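Schema walkthrough. Field components (list of strings):
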Amino acid sequence: GAVVSQHPSRVICKSGTSVKIECRSLDFQATTMFWYRQFPKQSLMLMATSNEGSKATYEQGVEKDKFLINHASLTLSTLTVTSAHPEDSSFYICSASPDQNYGYTFGSGTRLTVV
Amino acid sequence: KNEVEQSPQNLTAQEGEFITINCSYSVGISALHWLQQHPGGGIVSLFMLSSGKKKHGRLIATINIQEKHSSLHITASHPRDSAVYICAEISSGSARQLTFGSGTQLTVLP
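Field assembly_structure (string):
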């Protein structure tokens, strides 16, 4: 149980375009989902906390107008990278947890390359 | 601010060796995760623990709350264990955010 599905797994886009990444909890409801970014050889960094039915909470230094998060249902959160630039190229991954007694499950990640 | 320190950063072992990866954290936590990240990037949760010890197959995780320290042990290591191992603390409180260590790149040679 506690499966999180993320797609696409890999995307290449041109500078200036937008890319949407989806994160779905398949067998549980997630009122909260987390979005992380990981640059090569570095640790995962929390970008934002996605809250179902309300605004996302962004970490310091993360532009909310550039990284749009929508959590419209209890099983789906989306991250849209708007006006992508090459420096946005990174590995993006989401996670969620069914409840406090259960650990976190991660999506399979999305490798974004902006050319 | 919570900080999570892992050691070693890189570890190379021969198949069959006993492996230990250490993790220290700075403030009180709700629980701690040990994660495994494969070369493609996918992350698998190995353990979540808040006290004592857990075992799953050849993997053992321990945590000492008083010393703010956790260890991940791999017995009879195998090349397929090669991956990045990450400890991540779960903050106390309702947010339950994860703070990640920098990871340990483990390579097990045949």
